[in-house]
Amino acid sequence: MLASFTACGGKNDAKTSEAEGGATAASSEDGEKIVLKGIADLVPHSEIIEYIKPKLAEQGIEIELVSTAADSTTNEKLGAGEIDFNYFQHEPYLLSEVEANGYDLVSAGGIHVEPITAYSDKYKSVDEIPEKAIVAIPNDGTNEYRALRILELNGFITLDEAAKDSLSASVQDITEYKIPIEIVELDSAQIIPTKDDYDFFITNTNKALEAKITSTRLFSEGADSPYANIIAVRSADKDKPAIQALVKALLDEDTQAFIEEKYDGAVIPVK
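Above: the chain sequence. Below: its structure as tokens.
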């Protein structure tokens, strides 16, 4: 639960307290201050959070990022109340975590899409890609589907309809190669370090941004992708004013403009 403390001393007697649910609140003679603890991936998530911090501070809300590297324990920490929100995942992934682990977690709002994207260091457009080109794609369930789906949308393959309905696919679900290509399934962390081995490669834009690659963007998902990155919270906290203020600040027009300008299409704000 989100916490608040009221000042009970003089000018220098501000108090802070750790509260159940992980949120810390501080207060002074100037009034109540709420501290929301969170975990957000470094790029672009924590950069976007840094942009909105001053706006939230004006409302008496302080954002404390305890980590800028989400990992397999991040949703567990949120469920256990060690943090108040996380910002690194899309809703289909959160739902899979909830189903697998029984977390009582929900999305408080979609913020931006990191469109999974095809890149190349060898070709400048899709038309240049030859037959029998080798492409690397991530091998985890959701991202492999997303990679195969944009290959389909750009005329390389046809996917089985059942796979499209389930939003899960592997190369075994390809029913036709419209353009002969060789698909290499890799752990997503290995794609950029080995990108020189492939004619083109497909990866998440946050990985491309963190690696600061200069590869040509060939094609990617659009803003209508169902994989918007979200603010995840415990269900009991979804309607808390501080959480709502956080989401609103992330969705404000000026924040969207910041995202569009800073990331130049590599990150797309949810409209």
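Residues 1-22, 24-29 have pLDDT under 50 and may be disordered.
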